Amino acid sequence: MWSIMRITLITGISLAGVVRSAAAQASGTGHEHRGFWIGFGVGGGVNLSEGMDGERLGGGSGYFRLGGTVSQHVLLGFEGIGWGRDDNGAAIARGNGSFAMLFYPSVKGGAFLKGGIGVSSISRATTSGNSTTTTTKSGFGFGLGAGWDVRLGHNLYLTPNLDFLFQAFESETDPVLGDIPGTNTILMFTLGLTWH
């Protein structure tokens, strides 16, 4: 419940920034994409696949991405994006590491669409006394998302993002991870900073 409230609050703040950005763009202010870029952000999300953890669980999320500029419309790079939470004393995490492309339909606007393909992972870390046992499984992953760069300075942007992570694993029952379905889906909202 707290994660849903946090996501709602972040969404409201981001929408206010989007309105401000749209007004600035209407007055002729454009966005510049050039050279190396880097960004990171945090937020919240929900694991939509009930089979993975027995129920739809909310948690924290974050991303880190960097890369180069192909054109004013296309950015290419690497993205590490993930979700996690503490569940009855066990730290569970889901994430993707992907080659990503960001596409900006308008040179003047900050809106972009994002896609990525790479590897996915799931893990559960359980602590008993002074020892921690971590179990991890890897698979195939891809992501789809959208965002908006809201200019804060000459080359600094506030970036709200909405992402869907899709993960594919070999279906099995793991003694620690439990029932691992063939697929896992996570919805995440993050708010980040991007430098161009």
Features:
196 residues, mainly beta, Porin, two-stranded antiparallel sheet, 2 helices, elongated
**CATH 2nd-level architecture:** Beta Barrel
Q: Any idea what the radius of gyration is?
A: 18 Å
Biggest sheet overview: 8 strands, antiparallel, barrel
* Distance N to C terminus: 36 Å
Under CATH at level 1, the class stands as: Mainly Beta
- Number of extended strands: 11
How many H/I helices? 2
**Helix percent band:** 10-25%
Question: Could you spell the SSE succession in H and E letters?
Answer: HEHEEEEEEEEEE
CATH topology: Porin
Secondary-structure map with pairings?
Blueprint: H1 2-26, E1 36-47, H2 50-53, E2 57-69, E3 74-87, E4 90-103, E5 111-128, E6 131-148, E7 150-151, E8 156-168, E9 172-174, E10 178-180, E11 183-195
Antiparallel strand pairs: 1-2, 1-11, 2-3, 3-4, 4-5, 5-6, 6-8, 7-8, 8-11, 9-10
Give an overview in words.
The strands form two sheets. An eight-stranded antiparallel barrel has the order 1-2-3-4-5-6-8-11. Strands 9-10 form a two-stranded antiparallel sheet. It contains two helices and eleven strands. It has one domain: Porin (Beta Barrel), CATH 2.40.160.20. It has 196 residues and is mainly β. It has helices spanning 2-26, 50-53, and strands spanning 36-47, 57-69, 74-87, 90-103, 111-128, 131-148, 150-151, 156-168, 172-174, 178-180, 183-195. It starts with a helix and ends with a strand. The longest helix has 25 residues, at 2-26. Strand 4 (90-103) and strand 5 (111-128) form a beta hairpin. Residues 1-5 and 21-28 have low confidence and may be disordered.
